[in-house]
Amino acid sequence: MNWKTLQWVLLLACAGQIHSLALRFSVLEEQEAGLKIGTLSTNYSAPYRLLNERYIRVDEITGDLFTKDRLDRETLCPSHQDGECTFLNTAVVSPHLDVVPMVIVVNDINDNAPVFERNEIPLRIPEDTSIGTTFLLDDQAQDKDTANNGLIHYHLEGSNGFFGIRQEDYGLELIVQKELDRETQDNYFLVLVAVDRGSMPLSATANLSVTVTDVDDNCPEFDDDSPIKAIVPGLGIKGTAVAQLKATDKDLGQNAQITFSFSRQISDRAKTLFYMDRHTGLISLAVDVHTDSPEEHMLKVFANGPLCPPAQAQVTVYIQPMVSSEPTIKIRFVTEHKNQVIMLQENEPPTVLALLELEDTSSDKGTLSLETDSMPFSLKQQAGSYLLSTSKALDFELCGEYDVTVVISDPHGARLHGREVIKVVVQDLNDNAPKFEQTRYETDIKENNKPGEFLLKVQATDADSHQFGKVEYRITNGSPFRIQEETGVILVTEPLDREQQGTYILTVLAQDGGDPSQEAFAIVFVNVLDMNDNPPAFPTPHFYFFVSESLPHLSQVGKVTVSDADDGDNGRIVDLRILNDKAPFVIDMSQGMLRSTGEVDREKQDRYELLVVAVDGGSPVLSTTVKMTVFVEDINDNQPQVLLPSSNLSCLTISPATQAGSMITKIYAIDEDSGMNSDITYQIIASEPALQSPFQIDQHSGNITLVQHLRGEDYGMHHLFIVVRDGGKPDPLQTTIWVNLLVNETLEKCHVNAVPEYSPQTLPTSMPLSVRGSRCESNSWLIFLCGLGLMVMSVFILLVSVVVFLKHKKTRRKMEKKDVWESKNICELKPLN
């Protein structure tokens, strides 16, 4: 049966017991790969294997379980937003292939911000909505996290107290908190903010656009410039306009419709003479008027609106009597005219408009003059006629139409014969540039805004008319902004990042429709407000420090630097600490220095794996975690420990027949230090009997060997005083041990009741580590003679070698000369052919 088949068999065998007998392990999502989540070694023995290593792996020897990749709870369990996210696995453990079902629980962290389906939420509210009225908002944010991480609460920004937000079980409600008036403000641009309830909250925003709809809450009002007096000539024709009344209603559409009517209190004569157009407010003659005597009529006019009391205005109409054989005026137009109306462009210098001739049927010639309010026009007599001229340049923006009244009177001015009204229309020129309400605008916007977000509206007006007064806008240096050409609304086209640029200066151009056009400029300062969108940043994802063990309390270990690209409190590091509970280190925030706070002993722990978190002071709070490894370097603070022999009274019996070169015993010692500090050497520094020991020790292995055959004088007890040293610098540490060896025919167990006392004053401090070629006697004189004999023998051998070499060299030279001589003689005796 192969392993794949075994997997399926084991899965089927344990499928029914996974939830009742399974081991449970938990892990936070979004942790780095390789995180240990538990171990199987607590309950089961090696080896360990997993049937499925898609998400986790197991160490086959230790049974420790580790994540293989970064786990995302929302990806693993997309349909368990509010429940527990788990996945199953099965381990095969121990040599007997025991099956262990497992359940791994992936716990949620707040790694998902709320999300609105729509960035723009429109809402229409009538202006007469009472305070406290609520409107249900269907657009609610969604959060993929669970528990508090997925719970959302809302608040509004930019409402200026007009609106509030309330969250109920059945949905989200907008509350009207102040009275609304469409005529004062018809649109509100609010920001709906959704914030989750995680320990480090995340948020999202949507633009809530509230349009205040019109209700009929305003009544008609007559304009201040509505005519009060009107004059009708004595010979009036039916349909002749008498007066034009104007009234306005601030409402919109049907709510702003106005109808005009006469009061019932006007006279019957007035009802017969005048007609009121109920839609336009124009009063005209209802019949032809022929009267020889002047008449005056008081007309009370009503402007009516839906559900409103009528507005009143009073018009006084004077009807002049007919005058027989009155003089008349003949007009000969000099400038452009149309339908008896003079057309004159503005800004023209004083210009002759018309030539007026008086046609008088009476015996007395009359005269022509202008009414006193006919400025800026003049009438001058010339050769029996009259020249009508402008007295100064006309300005369309001051007045677009003039009614020039020419009065006909007798030569003495005693009797008025009549009037003639000449209409002058001033034609507009593009002589006015657009003008901004203010030339400098300044506004704020939070960074990370949504594309297309409203920034502000600029407004420019042009006093000219029609196309000349139509203003269009554009931004000369707009990126990342754009402006609506007709409205002046500036929008942000992309998210802004304060860390990249904190201030933008826009130049807005307003241009009219003239040819050539005129233009004006305004400057817009945009301040990008900081949001806490940058967590603290360490210069490296992993700090490494090296310290010597036994360093003093509060010693400096290393510098820990951290920065935050945000501004103000968002960029201020308010907490920098070590997460490990029992680590003997602390971070001094004032200096950013890692310091020691307790004992550091390499023999207890040679390194410390620390997690350091930096937290900023923003809202929401952001933090960053970094790894830190502190390696403890060894110092020579432990002397060697002899494990074998176990004490100075240990004893070993050796047979006299033991072969030379045989290993007799071994000294085994350890040193808890590391490196050179734990490099152990062994040395015999004394023995008893003194200088008669046939044993030696290997300085590295500690093996004690017999260096020569044992003799009769070697029988008995041998005590070896051995020093065990480490390689520490500059001062090594050492331990001593007595090795007791009994040379005896019978291999009975030997006993040592006491060991010799080592006296450095009487015994040599060290022994040669090499094996000596021959044994010498114990007294110093014999040792000297032995050494001297060896030296003499060495000198003798050297001299003999030199003599033999010189003699051999001399003999070789003689042989070479003899060979040369013989060769020469042979050549001389050779016969000639």
Automatic annotation (TrEMBL):
The keyword rRNA processing does not apply. GO terms for biological process: anatomical structure morphogenesis; cell adhesion; homophilic cell adhesion via plasma membrane adhesion molecules. PROSITE patterns: CADHERIN_1, CADHERIN_2. The keyword Transcription regulation does not apply. Pfam families: Cadherin (PF00028), Cadherin_2 (PF08266). It is found in: Cell membrane. It is a single-pass type I membrane protein. Keywords: Calcium, Cell adhesion, Cell membrane, Glycoprotein, Membrane, Repeat, Signal, Transmembrane, Transmembrane helix. SMART domains: CA. Gene3D superfamilies: Cadherins (2.60.40.60). Residues 1-20 form the signal peptide. Residues 21-116, 117-222, 239-436, 437-538, 539-642, 646-758 form the Cadherin domain. The chain crosses the membrane at residues 781-806. One of its GO terms (molecular function) is calcium ion binding. InterPro entries: Cadherin-like_dom, Cadherin-like_sf, Cadherin_CS, Cadherin_N, Protocadherin/Cadherin-CA. GO terms for cellular component: plasma membrane. This is Protocadherin-20. It comes from Danio rerio. The lineage of its organism: Eukaryota, Metazoa, Chordata, Craniata, Vertebrata.
